[in-house]
Write a structure and sequence with these properties.
Elements (H helix, E strand, L loop, with lengths): L6 E6 L4 E8 L2 E9 L11 H23 L8 E7 L3 H18 L3 E5 H7 L15 E6 L4 E8 L2 E7 L5 H11 L6 H9 L22 H17 L3 H32 L3 E5 L6 H14 L2 E3 L10 H13 L20
Parallel strand pairs: 1-4, 4-5, 6-9, 9-10
Antiparallel strand pairs: 1-2, 2-3, 6-7, 7-8
Helix pairs in contact: 1-2, 3-9, 4-5, 4-6, 4-7, 5-7, 7-8
Bound molecules: 5'-O-[(R)-(carboxyoxy)(hydroxy)phosphoryl]adenosine and zinc ion (ZN).
The site of 5'-O-[(R)-(carboxyoxy)(hydroxy)phosphoryl]adenosine (KG4) has 19 residues, from helix 4 and helix 5.
Length: 343
């Protein structure tokens, strides 16, 4: 007899995107993301505004997801939600909504670690692409984290190295702010970099041992470059905007990929993946795939919709916990900090 499908409703609200997805097994039936434009006025996410916007959006986003998937709440087998890490107020909205739905429907509740979900997005069945086989190493590059995760199975993830200070996305966002660009800065820098010279400005490559990263020195060097340039020419940033963006992007990609090459070689693992918002960056994607091709490694990148924050990735992470009967208690509070591989 054919096994009936599992329908999972997943909720993501850890930062400034309100998202609800419906999964039917490992296939995404709907994945609605409401981004909060309000933060661009402030050059970064304002936590209090983020939680209020989540409250305004979450019911409509959930309705839309169910409608797009063409299924009713009665067909939902479990609710998966982001327990952490993230902004406390933002998490609280998703966590409370998930608990209420789970209680009302009488279905299990599954807590998901947002950073594990970024990695497990690679296990979504997107139709035409293949999935990485275990073990693989994923470099997760997001606004708050930059980490190598060794994935031995969907429920066995371990951090091999991570940033000691700023994340790669944070470096993009903060340097963008220095140049007067809107938040989030990553996509804007990436767009402007397309017409710039990546080697016009030299920036330092940090000497951090092992598999760890550091981006704070690069950020300071970039600030110094802008200040020195402005002293010479008032319109320095405007004049060299494309080259500044291209040089910054070039250095961030170089830092990320030289460590990835080291990590893969030392761990002797040739199945590699990129995840997180920064992995939407075209230059990074192209350079990563070309590194893999040269080395004879298999490289996996995600469709853009699954790189930045979305509930589909929470759904796929929840699916594996559902299969193990690994459910969450109603008393579990949201966690602003939550380590990978610890739950
Ligand atoms: O994974 P994500 O959506 O949220 C977090 O969990 O942090 O990542 C957001 C980060 C932001 O720093 C944003 O600037 C960056 O991803 N980002 C990019 C691009 N698209 C998003 N960075 C560089 N190039 C892009 N195309
Ligand atoms: Zn994220």
């Amino acid at each position: 007899m054919r096994k009936p499908s599992t329908h999972l409703l997943a909720i993501e609200s850890s930062c400034d995107d309100t998202s609800v997805a419906i999964l039917e097994n490992d296939k995404v039936r709907a994945n609605i993301v409401a981004s909060q434009a309000i933060h661009s006025l402030y050059g970064g996410v304002v936590p209090e505004l983020a939680s209020r916007a989540h409250m305004q959006h979450i019911v409509a986003v959930c309705d839309q997801a169910l409608q797009d998937a063409g299924i009713s709440l009665k067909q939902i087998d479990a609710i998966a939600y982001t327990r952490g890490p993230g902004l406390m107020g933002s998490l609280l909205v998703g966590v409370s909504f998930a608990k209420s739905l789970s209680l009302a429907l009488g279905v299990p509740l599954i807590e998901v670690n947002h950073m594990e979900a970024h990695v497990l997005a690679h296990l979504i069945d997107s139709g035409n692409s293949t999935k990485p086989e275990f073990p693989f190493i994923c470099l997760t590059v997001s606004g708050g984290h930059t980490q190598f995760v060794l994935c031995s199975s969907p429920t066995n993830l371990r951090v091999l190295g991570e940033t000691l200070d700023d994340a790669a996305g944070e470096a993009f966002d903060k340097c963008a702010k220095m140049m007067g660009l809107p938040y989030p800065g990553g996509p804007e820098i990436s767009r402007l970099a397309e017409q710039g010279a990546p080697r016009r400005f030299d920036l330092p490559i940090p000497q951090v041992p092992g598999y760890d990263f550091s981006f704070s020195g690069l950020k300071t060097a970039f600030l110094n470059l802008l200040q020195a340039g402005r002293q010479q020419q008032e319109n320095f940033v405007e004049k060299y905007l494309h080259d500044l963006c291209a040089s910054l992007e070039h250095h961030i990609v170089k830092i990320l990929l030289s460590k990835f090459e080291l990590c893969a070689a030392r761990e002797e693992i040739g199945t590699l993946a990129l995840a997180g918002g920064v992995s939407a960056n075209k230059t990074l994607r192209t350079a990563f795939l070309s590194m893999c091709q040269k080395k004879g490694w298999q490289g996996f990148i995600l469709p853009n919709t699954f790189t930045t924050d979305n509930a589909a990735m929470i759904g796929i992470a929840g699916l594996y916990k559902y299969a193990d009967g690994n459910f969450s208690s109603f008393g579990a509070p949201p966690l602003a900090r939550m380590a990978v591989g610890k739950v």
